[in-house]
């Protein structure tokens, strides 16, 4: 999760699926954004 100036606020980990996406981590990040009402934050993925 990053804030408005692209600083990392929180990290989520998960295993990648067949196309390289980490859906569990993104799902948890989006859930936290909605439940906490964090406006201006976004979920981003980093592929290693």
Structure, described:
This protein has 48 residues and is mostly helical. Helices cover 29% and strands 0% of the residues. The protein has one helix and no strands. The chain is globular. It starts with 22 loop residues before the first helix and ends in a 12-residue tail after the last helix. The model has no long low-confidence stretch (mean pLDDT 84).
Structural class by helix and strand composition: mainly alpha
The number of helical segments is 1
Largest sheet: none
Strand-and-helix sequence, N→C?
H
Poorly predicted runs of 5 or more residues: none
* Distance, first to last CA: 17 Å
Question: Rg to the nearest angstrom?
Answer: 11 Å
Which descriptor suits the 3D outline?
A: globular
Question: Helical amount among residues, as a percent range?
Answer: 25-40%
Q: Which range does the strand content fall in? A: under 5%
> Tally of extended strands?
0
The mean pLDDT is 84
List keywords for this structure.
48 residues; mainly alpha; 29% helix
Short description:
By secondary structure, the chain is mostly helical.
